[in-house]
C-alpha cells in the first residue's frame, strides 16, 4: 500500500485514498475529507480491476444419485407363469403354483435384503387361485402393508406392497 491508493476498511462501510503510511498504521481520507487511521491488516485495496477481469467458470451441476430404496419407480413382479419359465406347457397346475409361490417368496426376501420400500405384484384377474395364494403369503408376512391397486379388488390384477 502506498500514498494515492484507494482502500476500504474490512467490516466497515468506509473507504478513501491513502495520505500517509507510518509503519503498520495507514492514514487515509474519505470522500468528505475526514481522515482515519487503521492498521494495514484492517484495510483492503479498492481496485476494481482486481474483480472485473476475473473469468467466471460455470461448473456442471453434479447429478444427484438416488439410491434404489428411494427411487420413485417401484419394483414390479409379474407372476404370470409364461414370464417365469421358458416352456410353460411342461408344468401341471400344482407345479405352476409352487413355482409362482417360490418366486414370490424370493422377491420378498430380495426387497427386504436391499431395503426396497415398494413392490407391485401382478397376479392377473383369472379364476382367483393365484390371487388367493398371493394374499395368503402376504397375510403371513410381518412388517408389510399391502393393498389392491384398484378400488374394486376383485377387478384388480395387481397388489401394491409397502415395506416398513
TrEMBL record:
Annotated ranges, domain Smr: 102-164
Any Pfam family matching the protein: Smr
InterPro entries, per the entry: Smr_dom, Smr_dom_sf
Stated name of the protein: Smr domain-containing protein
Species lineage: Bacteria, Pseudomonadati, Bacteroidota, Flavobacteriia, Flavobacteriales
Amino acid at each position: 500500500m502506498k500514498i494515492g491508493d484507494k482502500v476500504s476498511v474490512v467490516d466497515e462501510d468506509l473507504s478513501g485514498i491513502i495520505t500517509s503510511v507510518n509503519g503498520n498504521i495507514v492514514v487515509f481520507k474519505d470522500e468528505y475529507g475526514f481522515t482515519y487511521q487503521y492498521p494495514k491488516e484492517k484495510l483492503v485495496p479498492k481496485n476494481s480491476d482486481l474483480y472485473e477481469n476475473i473469468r467466471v467458470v460455470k461448473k456442471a451441476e453434479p447429478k444427484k444419485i438416488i439410491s434404489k430404496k428411494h427411487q420413485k419407480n417401484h419394483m414390479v413382479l409379474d407372476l404370470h407363469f409364461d414370464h417365469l419359465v421358458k416352456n410353460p406347457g411342461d408344468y401341471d397346475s400344482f407345479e405352476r403354483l409352487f413355482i409362482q409361490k417360490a418366486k414370490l417368496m424370493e422377491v420378498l426376501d430380495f426387497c427386504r435384503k436391499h431395503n426396497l420400500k415398494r413392490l407391485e405384484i401382478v397376479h392377473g384377474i383369472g379364476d382367483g387361485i393365484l390371487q388367493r395364494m398371493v394374499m395368503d403369503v402376504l397375510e403371513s408376512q410381518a412388517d408389510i402393508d399391502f393393498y389392491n391397486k384398484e378400488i374394486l379388488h376383485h377387478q384388480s390384477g395387481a397388489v401394491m406392497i409397502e415395506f416398513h
